[in-house]
Specification:
Elements lengths: L3 H22 L14 E3 L3 E3 L12 H12 L14 E2 H8 L17 E2 L19 H9 L36 H4 L4 H14 L2 H16 L3 H16 L5 H13 L3 E6 L14 H29 L6 E4 L7 H8 L2 H11 L6 E2 L1 H8 L12 H8 L7 E2 H7 L22 H24 L2 E4 L7 H15 L9 E6 L5 H15 L4 E5 L4 H11 L9 H24 L6 E5 L3 H13 L9 E6 L4 H9 L4 E7 L2 H17 L1 H20 L8 H4 L2
Parallel strand pairs: 3-4, 5-6, 5-14, 6-9, 9-10, 10-11, 11-12, 12-13, 13-14
Antiparallel strand pairs: 1-2, 7-8
Helix pairs in contact: 2-10, 6-8, 6-24, 7-23, 8-23, 10-16, 11-17, 12-13, 15-18, 20-21
Length: 685
């Protein structure tokens, strides 16, 4: 047995090594005024070219062009942490056994040290102060013998539900929203503003014309007037503000009512409408400007993590399009759908697997750089994790992702419009470095991260970044579930993608965490598909989206319940919806499956200013509930506000109901009437 002194000495040595690794991971790139950049050591001494996020030298004509761009869009450079992306343990093992795969070099392929991924299995912590449908009821239900009736676990404050497994609409409902719970906190003046906002959202024609009206005011040099109106109405209701003091104040007010916050810097990025192909110094200038802009976004996300940390148990949203040039994300996302289509075409027997011949003849040629593979058998061996001669879609995603440098030449264009540029690989590294630095700060400040879903033509790379961050940060047990990915269930492939990502988490040893939404870009996605002549990625009907959403939630709830019964760490589900029928189904499943929500494996969320009656009812019942809290300048959040108005107008019945509730509250106060007491079922949900 080692002595106490030896134990302390070895402990200090481990601490010193850990600190050294941390410093290496967060090391800033070193640059010289002239000449090439120095390379630096990253975890284990492997030398890799550092990725500098600073501007080019002043002598370059690129700087002159960037200066002209910054004259109209001034941005302060922010040097983010730089570190090449890491291979997972599985990828490193495959890479070590791979032969020379390509017939000619194509893009940078630096070597990276392997990183072991720790498992996530362990005892799930169950708090004595368990939160759920009823704290004491759910705790006793979990301890009751399997097969015992759910009614035996109820206490005096549990809702009276005759059959917890009954379908929505039969028996007494668990969810009974009460608008007065939210409206009590608003002044009459605020209520009048809210009523006007809801009335405007209820006018489909007005909402459709809103972008044109705003552009007209801008052309007439009357933006000051339209901005003043929007600031005092839509912005005041749907956003927390622009300054830190008012943003944190809004979060704290929600927390006092039992509602958590997801702080969201609501500036958005998209492909430019007038994109043109440029070369030479102009292209380099645009690229440099895009990286400076992404650094500025990263700096704002750092500030967001600081604000979110001032309120306990908060989230912060992260948009990947803010951390890289959207055109880079677009080019790197291009091969995903052709690769998926090729895999499905090669899978002749529909068993979800392909062999070497199918991989070589159908799957590889779908990639932009598939023709340059000199050793298809070596590539297949890298993908075939267990060596059984068959690979599935998850195998392909794990092995041929952008985080595997050996796979990057597959993404490289041969000169056409399909595929990536060599410079995109460097920009990818910058994006990973920014995302890692932001999430690392979130971890240090105790803030959880929601990675937002965006347009389908970016989503493959957004999903990829979310999986890379989850693999790195969602390990070590339920207390370290840091990163959530978002799934838009209005997409036809949403459930399959969520299932594949869950399976990947199981194989790589990290905790899967999903936020489910219906989606916010339906009009844009359908219009783009129609104009470019491809199949719409959106479900054909609203009913199909509802069904897919409920199936996805039920699937994850079942896995959560199974993991809790087995004493394992469950996946995490964030139910983000304004649809009360979906919320009711989830509440019933929570009760029937006896899921303990003390460690928040299941949470609910709505947007600030929407469905407040539901949000406050859930909070009063001690159900984990969060509000998306957007912030930013008015110009930055204007696209977000327009989408909120469009989303509200799409559910005219619900918005009319909310407007009627607000007007009823105004009349009650004006006439001095007393309100009926809240129902027992609502207050004790």
């Amino acid at each position: 047995m080692p002595s106490d002194g030896q134990t302390q000495s070895s402990g200090r040595a481990r601490d010193e090594k850990a600190e050294t690794r941390k410093k290496a991971r967060l090391a800033l790139p070193t640059t010289e005024k002239e000449g090439p950049q120095k390379s630096h050591s990253v975890e284990g001494g492997t030398k890799n070219p550092s990725i500098a996020l600073s501007m080019p030298t002043s002598a370059s004509p690129v700087v002159a062009a960037v200066t002209r761009l910054n004259a109209t869009q001034p941005l302060r450079p922010f040097v983010a942490y730089a570190q090449p992306s890491r291979l997972s343990f599985i990828q490193a093992r495959r890479a070590a056994s791979s032969a020379a795969l390509y017939s000619r070099a194509a893009g940078p392929s630096p070597a990276h040290p392997p990183r072991a991924v720790s498992g996530v299995h362990g005892k799930a912590a169950v708090s004595l102060a368990a939160r759920g449908l009823s704290a004491s009821a759910l705790t006793r239900a979990a301890a009751a013998p399997r097969g015992a009736p759910a009614a035996a676990a109820k206490d005096s404050v549990a809702p009276a539900v005759a059959d917890a497994t009954s379908s929505v609409g039969s028996g007494e409902r668990l969810l009974q929203p009460d608008a007065s719970l939210a409206l009590d906190q608003q002044s009459v003046g605020k209520l009048l503003t809210v009523w006007m906002v809801y009335q405007a959202c209820g006018s489909t024609k007005l909402v459709q014309m809103a972008p044109k009206i705003l552009k007209l005011f801008e052309k007439l040099r009357l933006s000051w007037l339209s901005n003043a109106v929007v600031r005092r109405t839509f912005f005041a209701w749907f956003c927390a503000g622009e300054k830190e003091r008012e943003i944190v104040h809004a979060m704290r007010r929600l927390k006092e009512s039992g509602i958590g916050s997801i702080l969201d810097f609501s500036a958005e990025a998209d492909l430019p409408e007038d994109a043109t192909t440029a070369g030479g110094d102009l292209a380099e200038a645009a690229r440099a400007h895009a990286n400076v802009k992404a650094d500025a976004f990263a700096k704002e996300y750092f500030h967001g993590m600081h604000m979110a940390s001032q309120v306990p148990h908060a989230f912060a949203a992260l948009k990947i399009t803010g951390l890289a040039d959207p055109e880079v994300l677009y080019r790197l996302s291009m091969p995903h759908q052709p690769l998926r289509d090729a895999f499905l075409a090669a899978d002749h027997d529909n068993d979800g697997r392909v062999d070497y011949t199918q991989f070589k003849d159908t799957v590889l040629p779908a990639m932009p750089g598939g023709a340059r593979v000199a050793s298809p058998s070596g590539m297949f061996s890298m993908v075939d994790a267990n060596g059984d001669g068959q690979v599935d879609w998850v195998d392909i995603q794990m092995a041929l992702g952008m985080d595997n440098p050996l796979a990057r030449p597959l993404y490289l264009s041969d000169g056409g419009a399909y595929g990536a540029l060599e410079s995109d690989f460097e920009d990818y590294e910058r994006m990973v470095a920014r995302a890692r630095a932001v999430v690392q700060q979130a971890a240090e400040k105790g803030v959880r991260v929601m990675i937002d879903a965006e347009h389908t033509y970016f989503q493959p790379m957004i999903d990829h970044m979310a999986l890379v961050m989850q693999r790195e940060f969602n390990t070590g047990g339920s207390s370290q579930t840091l990163v959530y990915n978002t799934y838009q269930m209005y997409r036809t492939d949403a459930l399959q993608r969520m299932t594949d990502d869950y399976e990947r988490g199981v194989r790589e040893g990290w905790r899967f965490a999903a936020k489910m939404v219906r989606g916010a870009y339906m009009e844009l996605e359908r219009g783009r598909a129609a104009s470019l002549g491809y199949a719409s990625p959106i479900n054909p009907t609203l009913e199909a989206t509802h069904a897919l959403y409920d199936r996805g939630a039920a699937q994850l709830l079942d896995r959560i319940a199974t993991a809790q019964r087995e004493g394992a760490v469950p996946p995490a589900l964030f139910v983000a919806t304004h649809n009360n029928e979906s919320i009711e189904r989830v509440l019933q499943q929570l009760q029937s499956l006896q899921i303990d929500t003390s460690a928040e494996p299941v949470m609910f969320g709505q947007l600030l200013g929407m469905q407040d009656a539901t949000s406050y009812a859930l909070a009063k019942a001690n159900i984990p509930i969060y509000k998306y809290v957007p912030y930013g300048t008015l110009d930055e959040v204007m696209p977000y506000l327009i989408r909120r108005a469009q989303e509200n107008s799409a559910v005219a019945g619900a918005i009319r109901s909310e407007a009627a509730q607000v007007m009823a509250e105004i009349r009650r106060r004006m006439l001095g009437r007393t309100r009926r007491a809240h129902s027992v079922a609502t207050s004790s949900l």
